[in-house]
Amino acid sequence: MTLHMEIRGRGRPLVLLHGWGFDSGIWTDLAERLARSRRVHLVDLPGHGYSRHRALGSLNALVDEVARTIPDDALVAGWSMGGLVAQRLARRHPGKVRALAVMAGTPCFVARKGWPHGMAPSTLEGFADDLRRDAPATLSTFVRLNALGDGKTREAIRALARGLNERGGPSASALGAGIDLLRTTDLRRDAAHLAVRALVIHGVRDRIVPIEAGRWLARSMPNAELVELPTAAHLPFVSDRDAVAHALEGLDG
Hints:
The chain is α/β, with parallel strands linked by helices. It is built from 11 helices and 7 strands. The chain has one domain: 3-Layer(aba) Sandwich (Rossmann fold). Helices cover 44% and strands 17% of the residues. A 7-stranded mixed sheet has the order 1-3-2-4-5-6-7, with helices on both faces. The radius of gyration is 16 Å and the shape is globular.
C-alpha cells in the first residue's frame, strides 16, 4: 500500500512534500496556482493526514515509501521537514527527481559542532517534552512559530490552522518520530552529490530555520539557485505564494 496522494492539474509532474505536524492540505493555495500548468502530486507523509495510519520510521524508510508513491522524473519540492525528505530522495532515488526545490529547509535542523545554523538541542528537547505533556497546545504554539516574523502573520496562521485540523491531525507516534528525525538527521555530506537542478527558497525572517542554513545549502549543491524572500518567515509558500510558484515554474522549464 502506498501513501495517500492527490493529483491536480495536467502537465509535467510536480510533487509537494509537507513538513512535520501538518499534511498536504497546507498546499491548497499554491497547488491551485501550479495546477494551471503542472500535474501536482500532493502526498500525505506517514502518520499525517490521510496517511495517519502509517508509521513514520527512519528517514530512509520514509523516503522509500515516498519513492513508491510518486511518479518518476518529477520536480520534487519539500517544505521544512519535507525538505529533508526531498534531499534524501534525490540522493537515494535519483530517477524520481528531475529537479529539486527546498523551501524553508536545511540539511540539519539542530546546531552541532561545525554547524551554527540550527536550533539549540535544548530547544528541540523542550519542545518534545511539551509535546508529550500536551500535544494540541504544543502544535498550536508551533503554528505561531511558523508564522513569527512574517509580514503577513495573520494570513499565515489561518492557513496553517486549516491545514492542521482538516484531516484530524497527525498521530502521536508520528509527532514523536518526527522530532527524533529532526534531532538526528544531518545531510550536509549529501549536498555536494545533489547535482540535479535545484532551488532553495528561504524567508529572510525565518526563525525556525535561519536564512544562513538556506544560503549554505544553495552554495553546497552544485547546480542550485537561492531565492531569498525579504519579508517571509517559515511559510514562504503562504506569504509569497506567487513568487514561490513563479520560481518553481521557472525551475521546471
